[in-house]
Amino acid sequence: MKAQRLHGTAAIEEHPLRLEDVPQPVPARGELLVRVLACGVCRTDLHVLEGDLAPTALPLVPGHMVVGEVVGRGAETAPDPPEGTRVGIAWLRGTCGACGHCASGRSNLCLDARFTGYHADGGYAEYAVVPTDWAYPIADELSDAEAAPLLCAGIIGYRALRLSEARPGDVLGLWGFGNSAHIVLQLARARGSEVHVFSHREEHRSLAREMGASNVGASDEAAPGSLDAAILFAPVGELVPPALRALRRGGTLACAGIHMSPIPAIDYETELFGERTLRSVTANTREDGDELLAEAARAGVRPHTTLYPLERANEALCDLKAGRIRGAAVLVP
Ligand SMILES: [Zn+2]
Ligand SMILES: [Zn+2]
């Protein structure tokens, strides 16, 4: 099969992925063999390829927003889902199930979690394998390319929205407007919320306007100061104090990124007092994934996608790094 493989980390401009002919993966006991139909491109892939998140073994096939069709299974593997079913493969593909975090319903914090396209080969290929327990059902309403971005950008956005404690009808602020944020905007609008978007890129601001944001501004523009909840998708610590100032008393700011530049000093009186909450978002649980996929289908969420052939994975990642993608980039084998 064709696969894009990483042999050594490097700046994406050097095109570290190589298109190769490799043996089709063999599903182990309890695993499904999936023919890949679409695979979303995530900023985390960029962190892996460039070595910010050093890969544990090389060569590696990245990609963890995979939509595909079940075409086989390992020995002694349950017959469900049957061959021909469309399934999704996400970043999280296993937890220890035994630690305090796993036992208390916070498996997103498990220190022995396993990730697709990191600990195991992912979806920048024609075939992939996934443990049966971690294959998500995909609603018929969504095309392959539309479903793919939901599997990481959507799931993390959903968890960030939940941790921001935004209730239906609340006024929500989003800083940064990439893949996750454009899905959260659709979820929040379907819940009757007014959404304010702040981004330093005009392409992203124009997409936010098209998608029904109530107010769109530059990232350094003053927010209305009346937000019930806010999510920071941009990995820019300088935006934390202004986002906190824009919250009403009792509001929460959730930071959705894995990386963040240093956060400047926070003024207690104007930025934190009044029971404002500042929190991070770390990975997700299997339940977050199931809930997001169900809500996205109900709410008619449709990610805005730009398609690239599998051969052009390096270019897709360069475009993502440069901020040229509106919504989601998706590779199609
Ligand atoms: Zn991701
Ligand atoms: Zn655990």
What does this structure look like?
Helices cover 24% and strands 26% of the residues. It has 333 residues and is of the alpha/beta class. It folds into two domains: 2-142 and 302-332, Medium-chain alcohol dehydrogenases, catalytic domain (Quinone Oxidoreductase, Chain A, domain 1, Alpha-Beta Complex); 155-280, NAD(P)-binding Rossmann-like Domain (Rossmann fold). Strand 16 (305-309), helix 10 (313-321) and strand 17 form a beta-alpha-beta unit. Helix 4 packs across helix 5 (179-190) and helix 4 packs across helix 9 (286-299). The longest helix is centred in the C-terminal third of the chain and has 14 residues, at 286-299. It is globular. The model has no long low-confidence stretch (mean pLDDT 96). Residues 42, 44, 64, 91, 152 line the site of one zinc ion.
Core attributes:
Rossmann fold; 26% strand; 6-stranded parallel β-sheet; 333 residues; globular; 10 helices; Quinone Oxidoreductase, Chain A, domain 1; single chain; 7-stranded mixed β-sheet; alpha/beta; binds zinc ion
The total count of helices amounts to 10
Q: Which CATH C-level class of the largest domain is it?
A: Alpha Beta
Largest sheet: 7 strands, mixed
Mean pLDDT: 96
Count of individual domains:
2
Task: Return the structural class.
Answer: alpha/beta
The CATH architecture of the largest domain can be named as Alpha-Beta Complex
The molecules bound to the chains, other than polymers, are: zinc ion
Identify low-pLDDT runs: none
CATH topology of the largest domain: Quinone Oxidoreductase, Chain A, domain 1
The best one-word shape is globular
Distance between the termini: 10 Å
**Range of helix content:** 10-25%
Work out the strand percent.
25-35%
The SSE string, one letter per element, is EEEHEEEHEEEHHEHEHEEHEHEHEHE
Annotated CATH homologous superfamily of the largest domain:
Medium-chain alcohol dehydrogenases, catalytic domain
What is Rg? 20 Å
- E-strand count: 17
